[in-house]
Amino acid sequence: MKTVRTIAELRSGLDAARRAGARIGFVPTMGFFHEGHLSLMRRARNECDVVVVSLFVNPTQFNDPSDLAAYPRDERRDAARAEGVGVDCLFAPNEAEMYPPATATAVVVSGVSEPLEGVSRGPGHFRGVATVVAKLFNIVQPGVAYFGQKDAQQALVIRRMARDLDFPLLVEVCPTVREPDGLAMSSRNVRLSADARQQALALKRGLDAATAAVAAGERDRDRVERRGRDAMAALGVEPEYFAVLSAAGLTPVNPLAGEILVAVAAHIGGVRLIDNAIVAVTAS
Ligand code: PAF
Question: Do 170 and 219 belong to one domain?
Fold first, then answer.
């Protein structure tokens, strides 16, 4: 596996493969790889001729400077893990390479970027995500890009951006990978103390309670949300949000029908975690 740091080097490195018609798979990341990242890389390896992974902790998507400063980083370990699952190229640019002085352009995806994380982290968050992903798509020019379902809203924002800006690629969204006790894998989990690690199970408990309520026939959105919140309260956690919305457009839906997204965010011991579940609501 090759690590490259400049756009020019990446482009020239992919030239021959592109000319030969190779299918290029791309996994954008902010590093500190866990099984969730590795599952995306393995899928790309299975489906593509060339696999490129980017590692860039994108400052423009952080609304909280202390969160950016605390974001875990270990490029050497990441490179070894990526190589272990067969990645061909790790693109690890620095900030000046991605945002040269006087950079003035940003990508804004309205609608799906506005609720949930758009409220909690502010409009700058998804503007930062959409802008850096659009840049990365232009730099790598993949045939397929892989994202995780844990960031469900991010996946929707990126799909919409790719469609609206006519990026000629497929966006694949892959299942959330969980610890044996159900906690969704996240680079942030390493910052949880032992007590906070236990409390973090509240997110999955809340999602399970909400989805069980729907499975039992509950179709009232507020009551489903309350079931989720109550399950979290039993572990002493109050969510930043616990919301049930349409899975396709993140719009309010009541009574519940079609595909719904149950999404949760919570601060646990100073670490912000998110998780979600998609539920197909059948007519009852
Ligand atoms: O999901 C992430 O790690 C980031 O938001 C992404 C997509 C790599 C953009 O910086």
Answer: no
